[in-house]
Design a protein that fits this description.
Layout lengths: L1 H10 L11 H11 L4 E4 L7 H11 L5 E6 L3 H10 L3 E5 L3 H12 L1
Parallel strand pairs: 1-2, 2-3
Helix pairs in contact: 2-3, 3-4
Length: 107
Amino acid sequence: MRMMIRDILVKNGYEVAGEAANGNEAVLKYQELRPDVTTMDITMPEMDGITAVREIRKIDPNARIIMCSAMGQQAMVLDAIQAGARDFIVKPFQEDRVVDAIKKVLR
């Protein structure tokens, strides 16, 4: 998933500041890098994406986070939005939807 999103972003002129393998690492990377936008999977080891969104929003209430979900995770997507995610994209990723989500949260 990370490689697919990375490829889409780089192809469309965005710089990828960092990557994390799990929710704990995502929170630490956010704290260190303070990216303009963060993409986060709902399902991750050690700390799930929804908890990681909440932790990142404690660090930065204005964090721009896009949640990534698989089909059938609609209830979890709602939880993610309530936790502070600004948008979501559904796997399998469609390039135009990823780019549209990035543009939307950067406005």
